[in-house]
Task: structure prediction
Amino acid sequence: MVEDTFDIQGRGILVVPEVDLGARAQMELRVALRRPEGDVLQAVALAQIPLGGRSRPQHVLCFGTLSKQDIPLGTEVWLLGEVEST
Result:
């Protein structure tokens, strides 16, 4: 569940908390955003492990095409799978 969002210039909207997606450093994911109002928005997120020394790396999810208004606090992020490369 989204607890906070950050608008990072040149990257998009980052959501908190971070998630554990294994050892891969970066991947594109299809997600469903179930917003508090009850509607669902389909989107693509870039999942990345930020630089830094952590014992358990966690991925941040970045939405390059959405705004903070699209992802209100309390939104559930459902992972639907990886974006297939063409």
